[in-house]
Amino acid sequence: MPTEPHQDGEGEALRPEYPIGVPSKFDPDGNVQRFPGNTIVAHLPLSSPIYASLLKLYERLSTCHLSGLLAMLPPSSWHVTLFEGVCDQVRAQEGFWPCDPGLPVDAPLDDCTSSFAGKLREFDLRCDPPYRFVIVGFSPLDVGIGIHVELQTPPEESRLRGLRDRLAETLKIRHPQHDVYEFHLSMAYLLRHLSDSQKSELTALLLGHLQDMPKVFELGAPEFCTFDNMLQFDHLFYLGDQEK
Known about the structure:
This protein is an alpha+beta fold. The chain has a single domain (40-236), classed as Cyclic Phosphodiesterase, Chain: A (Alpha-Beta Complex), CATH 3.90.1140. Helix content is 26%, strand content 27%. It has helices spanning 49-63, 109-121, 154-171, 196-212, and strands at residues 5-7, 13-16, 37-43, 70-72, 79-87, 131-138, 144-151, 184-190, 216-219, 223-229, 232-238. The chain has a 5-stranded antiparallel β-sheet. It has a 4-stranded antiparallel β-sheet with strand order 5-3-10-11, with helices on one face. It comes from Podospora appendiculata. InterPro entries: 2H-PEstase_DUF1868 (IPR015069), Cyclic_Pdiesterase (IPR009097). Residues 25-140 form the DUF1868 domain. This is RNA ligase/cyclic nucleotide phosphodiesterase. Residues 1-20 are annotated as: Disordered.
């Protein structure tokens, strides 16, 4: 749940005490919190040159003097979300829960996951992997450390956006940012708002690493996953897998 915003002496609302993700996904000390849901992702292959490069960045972030401000996500969890599912604790706002008479907003999460699984097992992928991405930079240092990625070519962009549209129609859920969703790979959550000097220092570290790292990479078939928290995304099956 969101934190209460601070107020100044005249009662004007300012930014929340903590960045988004605290205390819902991590507490202020960096301890992971239960935040269950389901999603469709593609995990970063261990054989990818990007993975090897990000491991070096992970070590630098974990040992730098600003590491106490970060909740690092384990390399085994690294993925690009291809289509947002649901989070058990985020239901009320329109677009965050399926518009399905069989799944009222107070339905158990397991019912939603079972419903999605039944539909996805029959889903015609029509968008075969690999999906070719390119790293274009880092997301703003407001919520965490995320690598901003885009599809490598306009045809790649078109076919993956088309896949997202068909998934939204099949699952009867369309998030508010569906049409402008920015693909990314998350490495850490911020536990505190950064000062200007901290943001400058962390930005320099990230951009220094970006300069020499490989930029183009491929992802495999979409995976329907469940999660209990932000540290692990449990594979249920691949979309389009006839053996599932």
